[in-house]
Design brief:
Elements (H helix, E strand, L loop, with lengths): L5 H4 L1 H8 L1 H18 L3 H21 L2 H4 L7 H21 L4
Helix pairs in contact: 3-4, 4-6
Length: 99
């Protein structure tokens, strides 16, 4: 006798596990915002930019059933927009001269 899948046995837990990639991205962006709050704006923006690139990689590599709400549009559009925003944010933060 086989056990039913997790989403049948424990739907809340299955839904929570499905959103772990998004939770990891949000927590890391929150850390970046916290770093900006404490006066290290360049480091914080780089953390947020790298997090967006990591989110794009998660969207690219994870199957649809595991990616949760990181999947908003089609996979190519999501990957290009998140990676582009992450690279742009990182490059702009690093190009601004220190005073």
């Amino acid at each position: 006798m086989t056990r039913p899948p997790l989403y049948v046995r424990r739907p809340f837990l299955a839904g929570l596990l499905r959103q772990l990639p998004l939770l990891a991205v949000l927590v890391t962006v929150g850390v970046g915002l916290l770093v900006v709050t404490f006066g290290h704006w360049r480091r914080g923006l780089v953390v947020m930019g790298v997090t967006l690139v990591a989110a794009a990689l998660l969207r690219l590599l994870l199957p649809v059933r595991r990616v949760g709400f990181l999947a908003v549009r089609s996979r190519p559009v999501d990957v290009v927009l998140m990676a582009g925003a992450g690279v742009a944010l990182t490059v702009i933060a690093l190009m601004i001269p220190s005073v």
